[in-house]
Fold:
Amino acid sequence: MVILGVDPGYATTGFGLIRAERGTYALLRYGTVTTPVGLPFPQRLNILFEDMTQLLEVTKPEAVAVEELFWGHNITTGIGVSHGRGVILLAIERAGVPLFEYTPMQVKQAVVGYGKAEKHQVMDMTRRLLRLDRMPRPDDAADAIAIALCHARSSTSQLARLMGGKP
Structure:
């Protein structure tokens, strides 16, 4: 199964494309979608939508895993990221690709085995599972790769099989 992981944002959105087959994983592609800082916000959202649409057309994933938002201390930034996430979800829906959403705790649990793992632990386990010499950069792309791995590991679990493939 080819899975596209997405770490949503409006300034920088990370993506990671992996192939998961019988408990083995391979990194196919990763990077970021960025929008120019000086543009009005609606134009940035339009660029994000168009770039995500193109990414979905080019990569042809069988599933997309998107991280749910964690609201930190900066509500203003969180609202902007929420708008970006909405545009990303719209692009996925229009592409007709199955969408799966995971909280940061679910990503940590699936990748590391501990829902309160530190970021460096998630990145190290991601690197090991993909047999990489070093973790890809920037962090937004690395996070997206971990989100894709979360779906790969969650969707193939015994519980998911019992539930008809729903993680």
